Amino acid sequence: MEKKKILYYQIDDTLDYESDLLRQWGITDLELVQAKEGDFVEEARDAAGAVVEYQQVTRPIIEQLPQLKIVALQSIGVDNIDLDAATDHGLCVTNCPGFCSEEVALHTIGLIIDLARKITALDRSVRAGSWDPLLGYPIHRLSNKTIGLYFFGSIPKKMIPMLRGLQLSILVYAPTKTAEYLAGFGAEKANSFDELLRRSDILSLHCPLIPETEHLISDRELQLMKKTAFLINTARGRVVDEAALVRALKSGAIQAAAVDVIEDEVGAKSELFTLENAVITPHAAFVSEDSFYGARKTALAQLVQRICRNGRPEHLVNSAVHF
Ligand SMILES: NC(=O)C1=CN([C@@H]2O[C@H](COP(=O)(O)OP(=O)(O)OC[C@H]3O[C@@H](n4cnc5c(N)ncnc54)[C@H](O)[C@@H]3O)[C@@H](O)[C@H]2O)C=CC1
Ligand SMILES: O=C(O)C(=O)COP(=O)(O)O
């Protein structure tokens, strides 16, 4: 039987876990091939499916790969894929909704506590030879402060009990959610984005990167925020205009920021790295052994469904696609 090639780009360098799963599922007609990180089009030319990470899958790329049936992401965000082009060419795009909601929720809470207690800043100063508990901006209690959540998907939902534990008031801007629905989570609905900006002591971003959210936070928005506010971004780097954020952190327009994502993750460069009132982690919020294996299994199941069973994958993102 001719095997169908699946091209894999993933951090883990072996595909043993996937091969074991295929054996358990009785699937014998897939050949899993680790990519060499060369040219995607060349490597994917004879592939029926691909698992990509940060690789951009653009319209010109999709047009050159007519035999490709599915791109399976081991992530929630699908911003590196041209979904319209995929739909136009009958290419299924799948993701792994919720696979790391608990991890990102906890990481976000960690970043909030870090800024509220200046843990990273104090650690940096101790290592630099200082022993100064009053370093930097003044510390205030978190209880009764307001956290603003931008959009209300799987991650902020997981954060709710933790935010309640911190005794924060929860304000949400999510146009598609009603006040009654949010009240069920003990959260108040913000009637406008500007209300969210003005009232939040901590603003935490949880939206996908889509045209409407690109540079959502720029000079105007940062000026509307409280001077004492913290900005947390665990969504995508390009949701924040980083140059504007750097200006705001330098001028005191807001107090501090903690981000897990930056605009240039490929180059791993940002002026934020030079600022004392910024905490940065390297797109690590999703990481855990549990989330990795969960995502790998989900992505493989999508590939099997599309390629081996010619069926509709459970986690199809471009649901209008015909194949
Ligand atoms: N730093 C990291 O390691 C990770 C970052 N992420 C990022 O976090 C983002 C959020 O993740 P989840 O909460 O799991 O997402 P989700 O897909 O569960 O929720 C997204 C929310 O946005 C809403 N939404 C989407 N487009 C909208 C629009 N045009 N107008 C109004 N509402 C809209 C949806 O209704 C939904 O409530 C992801 O898209 C991803 O970019 C996700 C996982 C890991
Ligand atoms: O799931 C997401 O959207 C994430 O950000 C984490 O996964 P990734 O680093 O994109 O593979």
UniProtKB/TrEMBL annotation:
Transmembrane segments: none
Any one Gene Ontology molecular-function term assigned to this protein's record: phosphoglycerate dehydrogenase activity
Domain called D-isomer specific 2-hydroxyacid dehydrogenase catalytic: residue spans: 16-318
E.C. no: 1.1.1.95
Enzyme class: oxidoreductase
SUPFAM superfamilies the record matches: Formate/glycerate dehydrogenase catalytic domain-like, NAD(P)-binding Rossmann-fold domains
Pfam families assigned to the protein according to its UniProt record, in alphabetical order: 2-Hacid_dh (PF00389), 2-Hacid_dh_C (PF02826)
Keyword terms: NAD, Oxidoreductase
Family stated for the protein in its record: Belongs to the D-isomer specific 2-hydroxyacid dehydrogenase family.
Protein name per the record: D-3-phosphoglycerate dehydrogenase
UniProt source species: Sporolactobacillus spathodeae
